[in-house]
Amino acid sequence: MAILIAEKLTKYFDGFCAVNAVDFEVAKGQCFGFLGPNGAGKTTTIKMIYGALAPTSGRLQVFGLPPQENRRSVNRRLGVVHQKDILEETVSAWDNLIMQGRYYGFSKQQTHSRGEFLLNMLQLLDRADESVFRYSGGMKRRLSIAKGLLNEPELLLLDEPTTGLDPQARLLMWNKLKEVKQNGTSILLTTHYMHEAEFLCDDLIIIDHGKIIARGSPKALIEKYGCKNLEEVFLELTGRELRDE
User: Fold this and answer.
1) Is residue 231 part of a domain?
2) β-strands 78-81, 155-159: how paired?
3) CATH code at 202?
4) Within a domain: 112
5) Beta 186-190 vs 31-35: how paired, if at all?
6) Do 107 and 5 fall within a single domain?
7) Residue 103 in domain
8) Is 105 helix (H, G, I), strand (E, B) or coil?
């Protein structure tokens, strides 16, 4: 059963087509990868999914609802980890989670119960009372992921979630996200780490210049293009030239 459906989803900005008639579905309990170079349309698509941007044309449904017209009800069932951390750095990790909990209508007790589990899972609990400005970049990223998981979302949107993490923290996150998926949460993942996509994704699309240029499981794409790994597939399809943001 698909909990996210996009059909001919298109977004223009002042005549520029950022997302060009893309079709994809995310099934319950699936990790779906959304891969592409810088400027391919990944973040624009995520913003349409949680209702921050309206599509120019096409059909988009999340939990059977168009998110732009049902933003509050859809977002209560979503978790979002943005490409850049959105944290209040002058207060503690606990305070950040309490503020996020208020958005969902949680009591402090509810937030504390769920937050303690998440902070422990992400190895932040022993420093949860410190001001966030004292955190390393990797710790801030882990706190952002804790915020995204606070409401036990049915669908988790991850926009480059492990950027800034060292290899040990990245491996920790991969394993924890796999557990989240195994517990029934669907995940839509954008990442520039192809090993991450191979490890986590059941299915994926590669998008370039707003258009889908490949789709399938990591294994199927590697076999189809005769490559050793997904990174080789990605470079084969999108080229090796540097891209501006």
Assistant:
1) yes
2) parallel
3) 3.40.50.300
4) yes
5) parallel
6) no
7) yes
8) coil
Stated pTM of the model: 0.92
Q: Are residues 133 and 24 in the same domain?
A: no
pLDDT tens for the 245 residues of the chain, in order? 899 999 999 999 999 999 999 999 999 999 999 999 988 999 999 999 999 999 999 999 999 999 999 999 999 999 999 989 999 999 999 999 999 999 999 998 999 999 999 999 999 999 999 999 999 988 999 999 999 999 999 999 999 999 878 898 899 889 999 999 999 999 999 999 999 999 999 999 999 999 999 999 999 999 999 999 999 999 999 987 766 65
| C-alpha to C-alpha distance for 43 and 66, rounded to whole angstroms | 18
Is there a domain that residue 82 lies in? no
Half-sphere exposure of 166 (CA within 13 A, CB side): 4
The domain boundary residue, chosen from 105, 127, 152: 152
Spatial CA neighbour of 134 closest among 92, 83, 82, 84: 92
For residue 31, report the phi and psi dihedrals to the nearest 5 degrees: -100, 115
Domain range for 57 is 1-77+154-245
